[in-house]
Amino acid sequence: FSLYAEKILDNYKVIISQIHLFHVQDKSNLKVALSGLEHCLSLLPSDESVTVSQKKGVLQNETLLAYEQDAVKDRFSDVSGTLKTIVEALINCFQDFIPLIHAPPRGLDGKSLIDCVHHILCSICHAIKFSMSRHTQRQTTSEEVTLMNLDQDFAWMLSNKLLGSFPLNTKTNLSERDYESYFILNAVLTEIFLEVSKWSQWSHLPTDLSNRCLEFIERTLLGKITRGNSKSTHEKTLLALLPSVPKLILRVDHDWRDNLLQAFTTAFNDCKPDSELKLACISTIRDLIIPNGDILYSSASDPTVVDYQSAWVKKLPSLLNQLGDKHPLSTQAILQLLLDLGRFGCLNASPTFEEEPTFEEGIGYFFNPCQGKGNVSGGSFASLPEEAQELALCFLFYFTIDSFSAPLLESIVSCCLYPQLEPAVLYRIVEILHTAYRAGYIQITDHFSFLVTLVARFKVVPEKGQLAMECNEHETSRDTFKALTNRVCSCLSEMGDGPLVLQILEKILLEQIILNPALDNGCAILRMICALDSKPTRLSEKSIATLCEFLPGYLIDIVKSIPEDKEKSSYLYMQTCLYYLVPCYFLFDRSSKLTEEVLQRMQSIVSENTKSLESVQDRESGRNSLNLIQHIVSVVLLMHNDVKLRKIISSSKSEIDLILQNVVSFQSSGSTSLTVEAKHSMRIAGERLKIASNSLLA
C-alpha cells in the first residue's frame, strides 16, 4: 500500500468529494467505497510501538531496504495534504448522512446507511491518528500540510459539524439493534474526541462537549450502557478507549479524574482474568503509574490517585495466581508490569506487599500453592515458558526489598526442590537471591537459611536401579545437586570471612548432620563446612564429637551406594567415590583427632560385630553383621587407595591394625555361624586389609 498510497488516496478524494452529487437513493450503495477507504487509511502507520516491533522482527532486512523505507516516509508526507481534503469531505458526508439514518427514506436500507456512517467515522479517526503519529514522531517537514496545521475553518468544522453531533440519537424508542448501532457510532466519535483533545491547539474544547464525551466514557467503563449491546461490542469499545485513558485522566479536573479512576477500577475488576480486556487494563495501569518511565502522581500532589494505584497493584498477585500457567501470555504481561513497578520503586508504596491479607493472594502462592501443607510444588512458576520465568525471577529481585518474609522463603525453597524444575532455572533462582542479598535486600540470616535449607532438603532421585556411579547422557538430579552444591559453597565464600561465616553457621550445619541426612545431602553439608573451615580446624569440640558419630556411617554409606564392580572401570569407581571422600580428606587433614576417633569408632564397630558373629543364632542377623564388617574393611581400603588419604590415616595405623586383628581373630575362632561363602569373603577381606596395613608400615 505504501508504494501507491498517494495515488490510491487521490482517487478516493475524487469519489468522496463528489458524494454530495449522488442521488439520495444511491447513497447506501457507497458502503463498498467507504469501506475500502477505511481499510486503506487503517494501513497508515499510527502506532510507533508497532513500527518499532516490526523493525525488530526484520532487522536483517533493514539495511537492505533502507532506501525503500526513506521512500515510504516521503510518500506518507505527500499523503498528508490529501488526507486533509479527504477528512473535510468526510465530515460533509457525515452531515449529509445523519438525517438519513435518523429517518431513512422509503426504499433505503437503514443498516447500510449506518454502516456508511461507521466507515466515515472510522476513516476520520484513522486519518487523525496518522497525523498525530507524524507529529509525535517528528516526521513532518516544515512544508508538510497535516491535520495538525489547523486553520479556523477546519477547526470549526471538526468541532461543530462532527464532534458537536455527539451523542448521536438519544431517542428511547429504538430497537435493540439500533441501540447497539448508535452505541458503536458514538464510541468512534468518542475515540475521535480523545485523539483531537491530545492536540495542544485543542486543549480547550467546548465544556459541554467534553462533559458529554466524558460521561459516555465513564458509563462505558462502568458497563451502564447495556441496552442492545452485546458483550463483544462492549469489550471492543473498551479496547479502543482504554489506551487514551491515562492521558485523559491527566488533563481533566479533579472531579472527573476521580469519576474516571473509579470507573476504570470497576472495569478492571469486572473483566475476566484471561480476557483481552484484562490485558488492555494491565497496559493502562502501567501507563497510569509509570508513563514514559516516570511516576505520574505523587502522594503529596494527589493522594486519591495513589490510593487507586495501590488498589490496582494489590490485585496483581491474586490475578497472577488466577491465571497461573494456563494463560502464559497474560501471566507474562502481569509479570512484566510487576517488574516495571519494581524497577521504578512502586512496590513499596503498595499495602499489598507490606501486609498481604492471605498467603494465597501473595506472591509466594505463585511459587508454591501448597505452602504449609508439607508438599513440594513449583507452583505456576515451574510450568511457565522460559521467558516468563525470567521475568518472574527479575521481579523477585525487586520484591525482596523489605518483603523477604518466612512464608515467601519457604515457597521459594519448595519451588527449588520441585523435581520437574529445570536445573538452569534452579541455578538462576540462587543467583537472583544471592544478588539481592549483596544489594542489601535480604538479611544475612534469611539468606543463610535459604542456602542451608535448599542443600539439606534437596532430594537426589536416581533412575530405577541406578547407582551413584552410573550416569546417563542427560543430566540427572545428582548432577544437578552437585552443581547446586558448588554454587552454594561459592555464595557462602562471598558472604564474608570463612571462619566468621562458619562460626555463624556451625551450629545450624551440625544440627543437619545430627539428623543423618542422605549420602548426597550429607556430602553437600560436609562440603559447605570444608569451604568455610581452615587448617587447623576451627570447629568446636562439640562439632568434632558430632562428626565422629556421623562420619563412620557416612563412609559406610559410600561403599554401600557405590559397590565395587570388577567388570566396570576402576577409574570410574574411584572418581565417583572420591567426590564423596574429598570432604573427609579436608576434615581429617585439618584435625588428626577427628581422624583417630573416626577410625577408633569403626574399629569398635568391627569388634562388636565379630563378637556378635561368634554367638549369633539368627542367620539374618549374622549376614547383617558380616556385611557391616566387610563395608568397614572396604572403607579402609578405599581411603588407602587414595594417596592423600593414605598419608593421613598412616598416623592412625594402630586402629587399622586392631580392625585387622579382629577380622583375623574371628577367622581363627572356628565359628560355625558363617556359611562357606561368608568365610571365604572374610578371608579375602582380611588378606586385602593386611596388605594395606603392611604398606602403611612401609
Explain the overall architecture.
- The chain is mostly helical and 698 residues long.
- Among the domains are: 1-149, no CATH class; 168-270; 591-698.
- Helices cover 68% and strands 0% of the residues.
- The protein is rod-shaped and about 125 Å long.
- Residues 48-72 and 139-143 have low confidence and may be disordered.
- This is TEX10-like TPR repeats domain-containing protein.
Ends distance: 93 Å
Helical content class = 55-70%
Order of helices and strands: HHHHHHHHHHHHHHHHHHHHHHHHHHHHHH
What is the percentage of strand-forming residues?
under 5%
Low-confidence stretches: 48-72, 139-143
Quaternary state of the chains: single chain
Residue-averaged pLDDT, rounded? Answer: 81
What is the overall silhouette?
Answer: rod-shaped
The Rg value, from CA coordinates, equals 39 Å
Largest sheet: none
Number of strands: 0
Figure out the total of helices: 30
- Judged by helices, strands and strand pairing, the structural class is mainly alpha
Name some characteristics of this structure.
TPR_TEX10, TEX10-like TPR repeats domain-containing protein, 30 helices, rod-shaped, mainly alpha, 698 residues, 0% strand
Quick summary:
InterPro entries: TPR_TEX10. The protein has 698 residues and is mainly α.
Helices and strands in order:
Elements: H1 5-17, H2 31-42, H3 48-57, H4 59-62, H5 66-102, H6 110-136, H7 152-162, H8 176-196, H9 207-222, H10 231-241, H11 245-251, H12 254-270, H13 276-289, H14 303-323, H15 328-343, H16 364-367, H17 386-399, H18 406-416, H19 423-438, H20 444-457, H21 477-493, H22 498-514, H23 519-532, H24 541-561, H25 570-590, H26 592-615, H27 619-641, H28 643-649, H29 653-668, H30 676-697
Helix pairs in contact: 1-2, 1-5, 2-6, 5-6, 5-7, 6-8, 8-9, 8-10, 9-12, 11-12, 12-14, 13-15, 14-15, 15-17, 17-19, 18-20, 19-21, 20-21, 20-23, 21-23, 22-23, 22-24, 23-25, 24-25, 24-26, 24-27, 25-26, 26-27, 26-29, 27-30, 29-30
